[in-house]
Amino acid sequence: xxxxxxxxxxxxxxxxxxxxxxxxxxxxxxxxxxxxxxxxxxxxxxxxxxxxxxxxxxxxxxxxxxxxxxxxxxxxxxxxxxxxxxxxxxxxxxxxxxxxxxxxxxxxxxxxxxxxxxxxxxxxxxxxxxxxxxxxxxxxxxxxxxxxxxxxxxxxxxxxxxxxxxxxxxxxxxxxxxxxxxxxxxxxxxxxxxxxxxxxxxxxxxxxxxxxxxxxxxxxxxxxxxxxxxxxxxxxxxxxxxxxxxxxxxxxxxxxxxxxx
Length: 261
Ligand code: NAD
Description:
Elements: E1 9-13, H1 18-29, E2 33-38, H2 41-53, E3 58-62, H3 68-82, E4 87-90, H4 105-133, E5 136-141, H5 154-174, E6 179-186, H6 192-205, H7 209-220, H8 229-239, E7 251-254
Parallel strand pairs: 1-2, 1-4, 2-3, 4-5, 5-6, 6-7
Helix pairs in contact: 1-8, 3-4, 4-5, 6-7
The protein binds nicotinamide-adenine-dinucleotide.
């Protein structure tokens, strides 16, 4: 049976950890040649080496998604190495929680740069390549924080709301040239980012982690569980495939029922 992403070339940002790492692995398993881009060079190198050892075509790139020159070069490198660029996943991100009065402005600007300006920059430089090919798939990793508000997450929520707006505009601008642009909005996914948050909560409350799950996560998530990275990666693989041609400008929610309440 033909694989979902046979002979496709994908660039995934924030690919050294969590959701991005699983997306890179799943895309490779579905037949794609994958460039794993991350600020963390050692982790990106190790991840791509593991994929190569499994027999997949993978390559790592160390770059900062907020650096336009580095991102432009990374896209060029993908095209030079693999001959084209079919799929771009703007996934790099980070969390920081603080009330607005105490939120350092520099931190706010850094988070907007990583999770909103960076997807803009990557789309800006991927568009000419994809439009010339008359084919492309762009996926922006948003969040349920891009749809509803959360106290303490001024920068994260602003960036994630913004990236959904960017997704719609880019979808309109790519539509005539065969380029689709969508956002994925995960709820709580079991990744280092979320595990660290839960561990901090457990420490602050001086209770075991399981208690934090019972008291904080389960009341919010009707399925009473953290989502698994594979669930997000499987959906991303479908959106990145030729089968998803008709889906564009959408913010797709995968949240175990969180936002249904
Ligand atoms: P993670 O911390 O496990 O991985 C994020 C990766 O991004 C890291 O490898 C990090 O080095 C990289 N990165 C950070 N800043 C970068 C930069 N400037 N340039 C290049 N790389 C950079 O996080 P995760 O939980 O896998 O989250 C991935 C994405 O999914 C983020 O955009 C996050 O907001 C989003 N998301 C996560 C969850 C969740 O529950 N984990 C829920 C909704 C949305």
